[in-house]
Amino acid sequence: xxxxxxSNQLVITDRPIAAWSIAVVMFxxxxxxxxxxxxxxxxxxxxxxxxxxxxxxxxxxxxxxSTLRTLTxxxxxxxGKRTTEFSFNEIAGFDVQTSRSQSSTRSQSTSYRLILIKxxxxxxxLQFATSSSYGVKAQQAQDLTRFLNLxxxxxxxxxxxxxxxxxxxxxxxxxAMAQEGTTSGVSWNIEVHSIGDKPVxxxxxxxxxxxxxxxxxxxxxxxxxxxxxxxxLLGSLVSMAYKQILGxxxxxxxxxxxxxxxxxxxxxxxxxxxNFATMTSSLSFGKSLLNPWTITPFDHWAEKYxxxxxxxxDQVGQLAVLYSPRGVxxxxxxxxxxNEFDEIIALGVELVKAQGGGKPAG
Length: 362
Known about the structure:
7-stranded antiparallel beta sheet; 9 helices; membrane; transmembrane; 15 strands; transmembrane helix; alpha+beta
């Protein structure tokens, strides 16, 4: 795979090097057998298999051209090439196709290839060869989606864990529990999904947004080490892992722009720092949000619903709040307070209004 990008072209070349290498080895073996035993059935079979392997694994070049507004798929066979062209107007998106096969030893292998989704719903394979690397194909799908400026490119998953999380959230949403409303001039929506046997309640308001920035506030057991934002190699690894699990709460990748260079925010409030971990895209931005009117409701929540290291059956779940380009998001992973949605709505509204969001209550 060799990606090239310019201002008006994105080129993705898929070369099945592994299959070609095996074919070359088989080709050499066939000649060795032929040299030792002269013409034999074994040498003919091996030679035929090597040629077939090359035929079945051609090189594919995908070229997206923003000037011509076309995507061209060119397949290079040993006997020539074949070109298929698609207009940008007939492309709805890109995805990764998964295929599984079982060998004679009953071991199962999984492979992936890039596909194009047309506006008609038809799914067109863009590559003949498959790969065992999901991440490579997922990144190609995201790159093409972004290059064509299709909706939602920022949130296309680039690894299996993100894909699993987004699929889990979508499949377990409970429409019957969804709510929307306006409280004290703040408009909001609530959705509920589940991760395993744990419910996740996700509240969001677009009445205060943070274009290009984010601040994550994640509850932790009192006085425990921060799960996010640590320094050094270990801190970086933990932050990378935490990035993958943000999807548990219903947060999207585009909700945390600049996450890879995010830093923790010291609040100066002892109770807050004891019970919450923070990460932000910009230290000055994070500090500007953590004003006394913001910190106070967090402190009240931690005093009322502390997160314990040992989960009890009646323990209120972990609180996570994300100030994001989409808005202020409040999520609880686990059980809700006894009065169910009321407290999460009240908390969300208070956090929005602490930043000057919402409309004056009529």
